[in-house]
Amino acid sequence: MRQLSHIALFATIIITSTAFVSAADKTKTVTAKDIKLTVPTSWKQGELSNNLRTAQFEVPAAEGDKDAAELVVYFFGGAGGGVNANLQRWAGQFQGAGKKQKTSEGKSTQGKYYLIDITGVYNKPIGPPIQRKTNPTAGYQMLGVVLVVKDKGNYFLKLTGPQKTVSHWASTLRTSFGADIKAEKEAELE
């Protein structure tokens, strides 16, 4: 009996170690202008759909979700509005009824960041942005990050998709730009 428990423990250690090594091998570093993101290789990097984007990814659906999420990284050359303006704009992309949101701030290896976490009915854009057409989509979540890069400007990262999928990838998004998740706190915005 004791020998079987040692074998089970040894097998668990091997499986755990293999999973750890495999997980570490399944990331890639992507440069988006002045920042670097370390993302899972399962996040499919796509062609930029417009010149305001510096990177975009299709983020795989979590088990139980049929639709993938999307991560978009924007840089406006030092323009693009301040932190509050962008957080408010992102919050406005969700309908008021049933919306929940939380704003946090923290530090990363690339600079200070502000993060808004919103759930509810997302006014999902359809067609060209200039038409401003949307499709109200329930059960969505957005993690919007304003990453303040010293001497470069603000980078805007927006992960949007079904709530289960975005929640599944939330810590991966944070670690992708070097966030210290444990030190994150409620934002003190002006």
List the helices and strands and how they pair.
Blueprint: H1 2-25, E1 27-32, E2 35-40, E3 44-45, E4 53-59, E5 69-75, H2 83-91, E6 100-108, E7 111-126, E8 133-149, E9 153-162, H3 163-176, E10 185-186
Please characterize this protein's 3D structure.
- This protein is an alpha+beta fold.
- It has a single domain, classed as Protein Transport Mog1p, Chain A (3-Layer(aba) Sandwich).
- Helix content is 25%, strand content 43%.
- The strands form 2 sheets. Strands 3-4-5-9-8-7-6-10 form an 8-stranded antiparallel β-sheet, sandwiched between helices. A two-stranded antiparallel ribbon has the order 1-2.
- A hairpin with a 2-residue loop joins strand 6 and strand 7.
- The longest helix has 24 residues.
Domain module tally: 1
Q: Structural class from helices and strands?
A: alpha+beta
Helix content range: 10-25%
User: Total number of helical segments?
Assistant: 3
Main sheet record? 8 strands, antiparallel
Short description:
The protein is 25% helix and 43% strand. With 190 residues, it is an alpha+beta fold.
Features:
alpha+beta, globular, 190 residues, single chain, Protein Transport Mog1p, Chain A, eight-stranded antiparallel β-sheet, disordered N terminus
